[in-house]
Each structure stands twice: as C-alpha cells, then as structure tokens.
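Q: What structure does this chain adopt?
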Amino acid sequence: MKLTAPDLDLFVGMPRDGSDPVFREPWEAQVFAMVVCLNETGIFTWLEWTERLSRVIQRSQAAGESDFGDTYYRHWLTAFEALIAEKGLSPPSDLEARKREWRQAYLATPHGEPVELRSGN
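A:
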C-alpha cells in the first residue's frame, strides 16, 4: 500500500525509508504484528483496537506528555496490554512479572550477546 501525503501527516517525526514510515526498533514491528494477528483471529475488532489506542493517546496528551514521534508504538504497547488483559488472555500481574523477568535477563546479558529468557520463569 502506497501512502499519500495526507496519510504521511500521521507519521510526523517517525523515521522513513524514502517516503514510507519504518519502525525504529524490532519491538515496534513485533507489537504491530501481534495487534494485527489478534485482530485477524477475531480476539478483538479493529474498532475496539482504534478506540483503545485513541484513549491511550488522549490520556497521554491530557497529561502533557511530550511526543517527539517516539511514543507512538509505546502507546500501541500500552493499548495492546490493556486489551489482552480485558479479553482475559493474560492478567496484568502476569504481564508485569514477565517485564521484570525480561529486565533482569537483559541486565544480566553481556553486551552484544542475545538475551535469553527461559519459558515459564
């Protein structure tokens, strides 16, 4: 899909490959793909997704948080976590525990080495 000039206005501040927006980090592409996958499998509708994402962005703006184009996918992640908790796929406590496990794993990993997280830890 080729984006037009008005479409690109939605991506101000985001990195681009020519005129097309690109992801800054691999995790952004991953959360994007997970949202699309769960939508395609019927876990939630696209309307549910856009409403949730809009609320997250509006709360951020109302709180006066700065946005230099680097917060868009953080909003995706926040909205995604809220929706999977709401749908009963994973309780918030499990998400928080897994985030702590990832943090410990990457802090314990030597620079340049892949981060390994054991399943079920």
